[in-house]
Design brief:
single chain, 11 helices, globular, disordered N terminus
């Protein structure tokens, strides 16, 4: 009995604070990136474009952190279909707002919120099937599929430096397959995260999340380390929705003040 009580005390319980902190860290990068993009491409300030050119290659890694953690969190949720449906509604409000504010060329047609909402609903619908796949097998399979489908938007699937196969060009001539990554010439989206390859990273996170459900993650992941990052991570959706209008408004105010000085 004493040994059982001791074991229960050592089992981590409660929120996995490290996930919130990593999400907050990725969120800071996203806000900074979008700030530089807005400054450089909407207001024409060259230093913003210079920073974007530096940050562009590492941007997908921060996005990957956010998406993988979202997959883990969905494995911990019992209402993924409802969560996904609500997020899908919010995502298309963002689409409508950007169409009317920045125009069709810069509007967000299928951004990270759209992709995550569809992944959540898919995860909820397929959960009864996915549970029969062993964790390691599911994790490895989704990582492999993620790597294979990274160049889908360029017309290929590939293993880097080893193998490449072209996909049918007719898939890239439609106006409705862009959520999968099959984009026609002239397609544009202010934020674009197609299901291929990102859904596989999300599902990899879902399989990894089984460790969280079983309380088998390292103990330090359950401890709070940097509370401001955790706060940002817990409120990531609200920050995502508000940061662009705030950035745009501040830049517009600065532009007006600079014009007054001339």
């Amino acid at each position: 009995m004493a040994e059982d009580a001791k074991e229960q005390k050592t089992v981590p319980k409660g929120r996995i604070h490290l996930l919130d902190e990593l999400r907050g860290f990725a969120l800071i990068f996203m806000v900074f990136y979008h700030t530089c993009f807005t400054v450089g491409y909407f207001f024409g300030w060259e230093w913003g474009r210079d920073i974007i050119n530096i940050l562009y290659p590492i941007g997908p890694y921060f996005a990957g952190i956010f998406i993988f953690i979202s997959g883990i969190s969905s494995n911990l949720s019992h209402s993924n279909i409802d969560r996904g449906a609500r997020l899908f509604f919010i995502a298309y409000i963002v689409t409508l707002v950007t169409f009317f504010t920045v125009g069709s060329e810069s509007a967000i047609r299928f951004g990270v919120l759209h992709m995550l909402s569809v992944c959540m609903m898919m995860y909820g619908l397929l959960s009864r099937i996915l549970k029969y796949v062993p964790m390691i097998a599911g994790l490895l399979l989704n990582v492999i599929l993620f790597v294979l489908t990274i160049p889908v938007s360029e017309g290929n699937i590939a293993i880097p430096f080893l193998w490449k196969m072209s996909l049918p060009m007719k898939w890239y001539t439609t106006d409705f397959l862009y959520p999968l990554g099959f984009i026609r010439n002239g397609f544009s989206s202010g934020d674009f995260f197609p299901l291929l390859p990102w859904m596989f990273l999300f599902f990899a996170g879902g399989y990894f999340g089984r460790l969280a459900v079983k309380k088998k993650l390292p103990k330090f992941t359950y401890k709070s380390h940097i509370k401001p990052l955790a706060f940002l991570g817990k409120h990531s959706l609200l920050i995502y929705l508000l940061h662009q209008p705030i950035i745009f408004g501040i830049c517009k105010l600065v532009e007006m003040l600079l014009q007054l000085k001339k």
